[in-house]
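Purpose: get a first structural picture of the assembly so the mutagenesis plan has something to point at.
Setup: two entries, given in the order below. No constraints added.
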Amino acid sequence: MSLSNLIKNWSSLRVKRPYQDQYKNADYKWGMVIDLDSCTGCNACTTACYAENNLPVVGKESFSKGQAMHWLRIERYWGEGTELAQFPDHGAQFLPMMCQQCESAPCEVVCPVGATHHTPDGLNSQVYNRCIGSRYCSANCPYKVRYFNWWQYPERAWPNPLEKQLNPDVTVRSKGVMEKCTFCVQRLTAAKNQARTDGRRVADGEVTTACAQACPTSAITFGNMADSQSQVAKIWARQQVELASDKQDKKDEGLRGYRIFEELRTYPSVLYLERVRNSDA
Amino acid sequence: MKFYINATLAFAMLLCTAVVLAEPFVSGGAIGSQTDDGYNALGPVVVQPIEFPHNTHAGTMGINCMYCHTYARRSAVSGIPRLDKCMGCHNLIESVKDKPRIKQLFAYWEKKEAIPWLKVHDLPDFVRFNHERHIQRFYFKDGRPVREVCGYCHGDVASMTTARRVKALSMGWCISCHQKDHQESATNLKTSNGPNDCWQCHK
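Result (structure tokens, whole complex):
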């Protein structure tokens, strides 16, 4: 952003974000819905993410040190503090956790070099070339979904000829940079490009993330929330969850939609649908 | 001892300065000039298997760039034409069949081998550049001449034999154009910029 740009758009840049109807006139605002009732914890999404985004498999030793690079992980909960805890064999609950693409992201403000910032279509970007590896963003992320390259993984993870499986549309990150879920930005860019040539907006269902595509139970829904007729926008509206609000004022009872750590005012773009539990079981 | 180190350092610095200052004169600062390691001011010097005369095809004959680089208007990459594209015309052009470069071309055709062309405008792997967006905007929407549009990044290829890299193709160079106010068309005075978001180009 040049200085002239800054001066010209000063008033719009001084607005507190997110605000109501911020994306009303925008073309794109990518969002996601994860139905925990459908999630079986099968890890297909994680595997798809590894394949799509060139994630290195770090090995047992590094994994035990917490150096795994899974942008999308399945968290397990054993129902602590509830009656489900008595039945650990039956009570495991799964929660796919990836970058929540916060509208007011804690990671963005602390980056000393501006390697992570907000894109116009509501993504929280990570520019590997700019990253100096201070890891401040990771420390400030309440979801712990940022992953640091502790090693030069390319040689370790993809010895010849495995490098041929790499996705050419995604950078192979090198040692010393931070990385995280991008909502498969390479797919979004390709879809937006095609739509632009055709002179239209990306249609609902035209593009989806690798995790949503791989999910056998369709627990993950991905789409454009700026399009009020899209699947995600409809679910958000039905669950009465407002993107730019940190306290949801739901009019109806029994709605399952919630966002994780909403009270921290990160305004995540991922909506989770609570699991329906049968307490009599 | 102390003096000795200082003197050595000073001499080394002097030498460095001299080399840095003299460098433009030594290499002439010209684009075509080449150093020992096969690099010139703008990147590696590429020696193609056949010295393809762009000046004849695009210059004298006035063939549209996109006749051969056919994917430029509909894909991220412009594409290097396949051998059968060359043969489609050259099979029928009797007058130049005995020229050395055409003989080379036919030799590849007889051997059923692809010509191992080398990439001249090679961007780093972390950059997402899209030919289609630029061609659609400036050639099809604005109706600017194709030599001018391709020339923004590739220089005047119609005056070269094998293509050479004459533009910096660095990030600052891309941004310098993206920040400019481009008139939407010859008749429309409305201006617009290229995108300046990091993720448009960085992947």
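Chain A has ten helices and ten strands.
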